[in-house]
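Example record

The entry below shows one chain as it appears in the dataset: sequence first, then structure tokens.
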Amino acid sequence: MKTNLFDITNKVVVVTGGTGVLGHAMVKGLAMAGAKIGILGRREEIACSRAEEIRELGGQAIPLKADVLQINELELAYDRIIGEWGRVDVLINAAGGNMPGATIMPDQTFLDLSPEHLKKVMDLNQLGTIFPNQVFVKSMIENKSGTVINISSMAAQRPLTRVVGYAASKAAIDNFTRWLAVEMARKFGEGIRVNAVAPGFFLTEQNRSLLLQENGEVTERGKLVIQHTPMNRFGAPEELVGTIIWLCSEAARFVTGTVIPVDGGFSASTGI
């Protein structure tokens, strides 16, 4: 048994959505903890830039260009990382997002939702998590060892006004996480664990306009979020890294089927 149960040195980690704001914090934090990182995303130039950034800091990383909704592209990415490092130890499904037409603005109602945008959001968040799992867990099954970390949301646990498509698809992630945890453990043994992290409110590309005005002031919706967050602020992306490292490590070897909030206390607060 390792003397340092939190050691993730040389673990091979694939991060979908590694070109996003939260994904960037994850890949950098994991690389600095000693993991080998596959940065998967559609924006190849950003994936390459971030891989180079990690290498310049002394870490190991490669870019993996793929759309999480395209199985053939995911298979090519899988072949590349297996060719480079021989296995996949950890899959982190950080790809996801929202669209304006799947969000109800203050002057709209449920009837105004765009079917096209709603479908795209639900496909991206739900199928965009299921498909990478189908591809990358093959290595874990072969080795009878591995960790999956899906990315949920506070919107899954406490339905938020306006973001109906995003909330519904993230609720599906919670259900899928628990289902897959049981499936993996019962059919392939205790060595494969599946969990999810549910971030609270972190400033990202998708929610910045909802939480901040153009001048940097907090919006009315942002103020409501902070009022209901006991720590009285938004989260910083790097504050997800500690929980991610723990779930990747042997320190969490008896943890599976869980959804862990990293939210400054938002999920514990009634607002009263």
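Notes for this example: Residues 12-200+239-255 form a domain with the Rossmann fold fold (CATH 3.40.50.720). Residues 115-143 form the longest helix (29 residues).
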